[in-house]
Design goal:
- The complex is a heterodimer.
- Chain A has 8 helices and 10 strands.
- By secondary structure, chain A is α/β, with parallel strands linked by helices.
- Chain A has a 6-stranded mixed beta sheet with strand order 6-7-8-3-9-10, sandwiched between helices.
- Chain B folds into 2 domains: 184 residues, no CATH class; 199 residues, no CATH class.
- Chain B is built from 14 helices and 12 strands.
- A 6-stranded mixed barrel of chain B has the order 3-4-9-6-8-7. Chain B has a two-stranded antiparallel ribbon with strand order 2-10.
- In chain B, a hairpin with a 2-residue loop joins β3 and β4.
- In chain B, α2 crosses α12 and α2 runs antiparallel to α13.
- The chains are: A alpha/beta, B alpha+beta.
- The complex binds adenosine-5'-triphosphate and magnesium ion.
Chain lengths: 267, 413
């Protein structure tokens, strides 16, 4: 852990959590999430406390069912925790109304899904414009085009999902996540459905966004090699944080070849 | 999210499922089309009726036999008859000072021939004042005179329609001889064209002196020696004097008919507005009935829309989840689906309107009875109503969509 919760740095609305490295953008305390399934209940999160500073690049790992997706949904304000506190960019979102959460998601968070979640039959540029529509922003087309250029899809703005490869679809989704200049980008297994080449491209984009624009990025992965492209790896098991460590020398996407799975396993 | 965007979105989603959209709209299309057609035809009928009654003349009162409260079962209508005496009582200016002139009519259907030509028409006996009362004059020759009436002369004045049938070659009719029920008549005049259409062509008439009709053609003499007439037309001096005239007429008629003080009248005095009022009462019932049909069909159409919107919400659960994930609020989703429902319904209303207007046009085209008239208030009502149906039946599906939790929606398979 690199920060404590009582370090409450005042936040100005305009910088949107960017630039001021070292300031916490995510502070969660004792977060639990209990799913009730009829008779019995599942404690998907069992008291998680994590601080993430502005400009960090973090991978979340852990076995299947350990609560990674659940935690990402809480961080993304897509779902409400059963208990615990969540300060996003200095704002307590623990007990906000649905519409307030929608507003937070719109302005502060960009979410990337494992299965892309693009709208069927809709051209890339309109997919990317979507968050701007709900933000009532002007010059949507221009902003969306720039976001698509940032992910290397400047030539594909009018393509529909069915006309794009999986990797390209995920890049459209990333453009959509970053178009409204969020404080953080959250990604739940963004490379899970991609081959290693497309996965590496996504990593390259994340690294560039993190390095050049200072965007805070958290993503879930099962792949230790992908995880080593970040600077910090948090490992969950059974709904609690079991490990939280820095990556001494992060890999640079595209500059190292992926070793065989066996080599990774026996490392 | 603004209206333009929502509209574009809704149109896009409807266009993606054109057939389904059309099938969904069908209920509303049929309902609105039927109502618009029927209302237009109804308006057309009313126009015809009103214009015909107004075309009868100015400040007219009609005296017809039978008590105003009589119904067919008591037989009053059959027994009561008007006679020449009643006409003479009304024609007496000292008894009925507010009447300008009076004309009785006594007509029967008859066959009129001239050489090989034949016309089946109504032959009506009346008096010379008929022209002024009806505001209906000869354009060729003359109308018959008091003396023609007294002498029961065999002279006739033709209406335009009858003239055209008997004189297809266009020969000037005055001076020619025609036969009415095999009795020779000399044509002394040709009436101007009065118009009227279809079931009540006012030019389809032959006018002859009252006595000629009563004595020579259609025996009207009763056992008591009185001569029957069908009705009596009376012209009032001015509109303001109408009520006074009705009172005077009733008194004069009661006296001539020997009705005791306490007894009910066995005749009815109608003004033109009475007649039009009675007819518009019928039209009002019709309108109410049409409104009911419209209501039912819109209800059925609305339920269809609700059904398809629920399907649409379910199909697009993931889309809703995604929209919420990137910041759509409840009301954004609510309005997205409400707009779709309203557009669906209004579009159905518009198509129905076009079809209904087309139907009304076709009916006027192929019938010479009437000109179906598209009433603008019914047009506005149809569109407003369909939009309201869309709004009402869209609320439930749209609310369901708006309430979806983003995570559950995104996970939906
Ligand atoms: N909506 C839900 N209802 C009930 N139980 C749930 C729900 N979502 C998650 N769970 C349970 O919570 C636990 C954590 O699930 P979660 O999806 O967070 O795991 P994960 O770490 O993302 O796993 P994976 O790596 O397979 O994606 C699991 O036991 C899961 O069954
Ligand atoms: Mg998961």
């Amino acid at each position: 852990m690199t920060a404590r919760s009582d370090e409450k740095t005042p936040v100005t609305a305009t910088d949107n959590g960017r630039g001021a490295a070292g300031r916490p953008v995510i502070v969660i305390r004792d977060m639990t999430k209990v799913y009730r399934m009829g008779e019995y209940e599942v404690r998907a999160l069992n008291g998680v406390s994590v601080d993430i500073l502005a400009g960090e690049f973090v991978a979340i790992m852990g076995p299947s069912g350990s609560g990674k997706s659940t935690m990402m949904n809480m961080l993304g304000a897509l779902d409400k925790p059963t208990s615990g506190q969540y300060l996003l960019d200095g704002i307590d979102v623990s007990d906000m109304s649905d519409d307030q959460l929608a507003d937070i998601r719109n302005r502060k968070i960009g979410f990337v899904f494992q299965n892309f979640n693009l709208l069927p039959r809709v051209p890339a540029i309109q997919q990317v414009e979507l968050p701007l529509i709900y933000a009532a922003k002007r010059e949507r087309g221009e902003r969306a085009r720039r976001a698509l250029e940032m992910v290397g899809l400047g030539e594909r703005v009018h393509h529909r999902p069915s006309e794009l490869s999986g990797g390209q679809q995920q890049r459209v989704a990333i453009a959509r996540a970053l178009v409204n200049e969020p404080a953080i980008i959250l990604a739940d297994e963004p490379t899970g459905n991609l081959d290693s080449k497309s996965g590496t491209e996504v990593m390259a984009i994340f690294q560039r966004l993190n390095r050049e624009q200072g965007i805070t990025i958290l993503f879930v992965t099962h792949d230790p090699w992908i995880a080593r492209h970040t600077r910090r790896i948090i490992t969950l098991a059974d709904g609690i944080v079991v490990r939280d460590e820095a990556v001494p020398t992060p890999l640079v996407a595209g500059q190292s070849k992926r070793p065989s799975d066996e080599a990774l396993v026996h490392e | 999210m603004n209206l333009a965007l929502n509209t574009r979105l809704a149109l896009g989603s409807l266009l993606a499922n054109k057939l389904r959209a059309v099938l969904t709209m069908l209920g509303i299309i049929i309902g609105v089309a039927a109502v618009i057609t029927l209302i237009s035809v109804g308006e057309g009928v009313q126009d015809v009726v009103v214009s015909e009654f107004q075309g009868l003349g100015n400040n007219l009162l009609f005296v017809v036999p039978g008590s105003p409260d009589a119904n067919e079962f008591t037989g009053d209508l059959v027994r009561a008859e008007l006679t020449n005496d009643d006409y003479l009582a009304l024609a007496n200016p000292s008894a009925v000072p507010d009447l300008v002139r009076v004309a009785p009519t006594y007509g029967r259907p008859a066959v009129v021939t001239r050489g090989g030509e034949e016309a089946r028409t109504t032959v009506t006996g009346t008096t010379p004042d008929y022209t002024d009362v009806r505001d209906f004059y000869p354009i060729e020759g003359d109308f018959f005179t008091e003396q023609d009436v007294t002498t029961a002369a065999r002279v006739a004045v033709l209406g335009q329609s009858v003239y055209e049938q008997l004189f297809p070659d266009g020969t000037p009719p005055v001076g020619e001889t025609i036969r009415i029920n095999n009795v020779n008549f000399r044509v002394i005049g040709l009436m101007e064209e009065k118009g009227g259409s279809g079931f009540n062509d006012q030019d389809d008439v032959v006018l002859i002196p009252l006595n000629t009709a009563q004595r020579r053609l259609f025996p009207a003499r009763r056992a008591d020696g009185e001569y029957r007439v069908d009705q009596i037309l009376a012209q009032v001096a001015s509109e303001e004097r109408q009520d006074a005239a009705i009172v005077e007429m009733a008194l004069a008629l009661r006296e001539s008919r020997g009705i005791a003080y306490r007894d009910e009248e066995d005749f009815t005095i109608l003004s033109q507005s009475d007649v039009i009022g009675a007819l518009s009462q019928i039209t009002n019932v019709l309108t109410l009935f049409l409104g009911l049909i419209a209501g039912i069909s819109l209800l059925v159409g609305g339920i269809g829309i609700m059904n398809i919107m629920l399907v649409s919400v379910t199909e697009r659960t993931r889309e809703i989840g995604l929209r919420k994930a990137v910041g759509a609020k409840r009301r954004d989703i609510l309005w997205q689906f409400l707009t779709e429902a309203i557009i669906l319904a209004s579009l159905g209303g518009l198509i129905g309107l076009a079809l209904g207007a087309g139907g009304a046009w076709l009916i006027s085209r192929f019938s010479d009875l009437l000109d179906a008239r598209l009433a603008w208030n019914s047009v506005a009502l149809a569109i407003l109503f369909s939009a309201a149906v869309g709004l009402f039946f869209g609320i439930y599906p749209a609310t369901r969509a708006a309430r979806l939790n983003p995570i559950d929606a995104l996970r939906y398979e």
